[in-house]
Amino acid sequence: MAKILMKTPLVEMDGDEMTRIMWKMIKDDLIVPFVDLRTEYFDLGLENRNATDDQVTIDSANATKRLGVAVKCATITPNAARMEEYDLKKMWKSPNGTIRAMLDGTVFRAPILVKGIEPYVRTWKAPITIARHAYGDVYRDVEMRVPGPGRVDLTYTPADGGDPQSVCVHEFAGPGVVEGMHNLDESITGFAHACFSYALETRQDLWFATKDTISKTYDHRFKDVFADLYETEYREKFEAADIEYFYTLIDDAVARVMRSEGGFIWACKNYDGDVMSDMVSTAFGSLAMMTSVLVSPHGYWEYEAAHGTVQRHYYKHLRGERTSTNSVATIFAWSGALRKRGELDGTPDLVRFADALERATIGTIEDGKMTGDLARITTLPNPRQLDTEEFILAIADRLQKELA
Ligand code: NAP
Ligand code: MG
């Protein structure tokens, strides 16, 4: 069988731990045998980030700006324990944070639905796609430990030399903590545009929620930006497409989501999206069945799995024990990136390959062959639990038949 040709390379961002092990298996068994794979490779594994003073992360984001489409493996975000484990020079920032900030994008996460893995929420029948605002708030905050009695102020000093404005955060009578957060009209507007456009493109309702009753300036700004943009640019298009924009308070949104049927996009502020996407993916079956794509208003696309590096499984793997780690979300990161590359380059064979890879993956599970996380929760009779590599090889087998 002739290999499928690629016109433009993908940006390939390798990562850490168990996902790094699966990354190589996916390439070796599911992609390279069928596609004449062209990538620009960046090793975002923690050792190389440390060796390059994190320059490799910046280089990979710049390459994405040049080539347009990236696929990323999960990476470690260092904490105190990792400082010691990897003997790090510095507690490097989250690569995802750095890349998102450079591409200025919105992250859309959607569960992969398969027969036999039923959502824990009985009413959910269609995927709930979470759009996470990928800039600012607590992820870009500054924090201070307040050691004892004293006063903390928040001060704005206008760049044009105007009078500074101050508000008192708190008069501390004893020790405590304080945090300063920010966001930008430009970023919120970009986020709103991305959500409205993606809703139109996928013909799904768009929900948005904040806590504007409590946060009367900060969260209220988000509400206003969405409302203004909807009225001025999207209302007519939404009505023509027969979809709805719906705003409510975040706690009301959570309650409504739980009793909904799914099938809509839920736009979330940064922290809400971080937390709610873990809840939604788990409730749909498994964190390992959640796809994630960063869509930049400048036309860049970065695909990845929503889960982390699956550290516990990696340590088992290092001890020589059998692991059964689910590679589906990482496979869908590859298929998503290859499909987008094919669409942008006008290479339909690549698009067809991406479709076939996804069908082979879903078909393998629906045939009863799956990893442990799914075998534990499936409603299919007599599931066969495969180990990490056996599962990928079972998909390869099916993919061969799909493409023949
Ligand atoms: P995690 O890697 O997502 O794993 C948490 C647990 O979820 C696992 O221990 C496992 O449960 C289950 N799980 C997740 N993915 C799975 C898969 N593909 N197959 C089977 N089970 C899966 O999160 P974490 O342990 O909190 O974080 C580990 C590292 O990942 C951290 O260093 C963190 O910084 C990083 N991280 C990276 C990203 C990213 O790059 N996008 C995102 C999140 C976290 P059991 O152990 O019970 O089987
Ligand atoms: Mg999270």
UniProtKB/TrEMBL annotation:
The record marks 139, 211 as: Critical for catalysis. It comes from the Bacteria. Residues 9-395 form the Isopropylmalate dehydrogenase-like domain. Keywords: Magnesium, Manganese, Metal-binding, NADP, Oxidoreductase, Tricarboxylic acid cycle. The keyword Thylakoid does not apply. Coiled coil: none annotated. It catalyses: D-threo-isocitrate + NADP(+) = 2-oxoglutarate + CO2 + NADPH. Its EC number is 1.1.1.42. Signal peptide: none annotated. Binds 1 Mg(2+) or Mn(2+) ion per subunit. Transmembrane segments: none annotated. GO terms for biological process: isocitrate metabolic process; tricarboxylic acid cycle. D-threo-isocitrate binds at residues 77, 94-100, 109, 132. Belongs to the isocitrate and isopropylmalate dehydrogenases family. PANTHER family: ISOCITRATE DEHYDROGENASE [NADP], MITOCHONDRIAL, NADP-SPECIFIC ISOCITRATE DEHYDROGENASE. This is Isocitrate dehydrogenase [NADP]. It comes from Parafannyhessea umbonata.
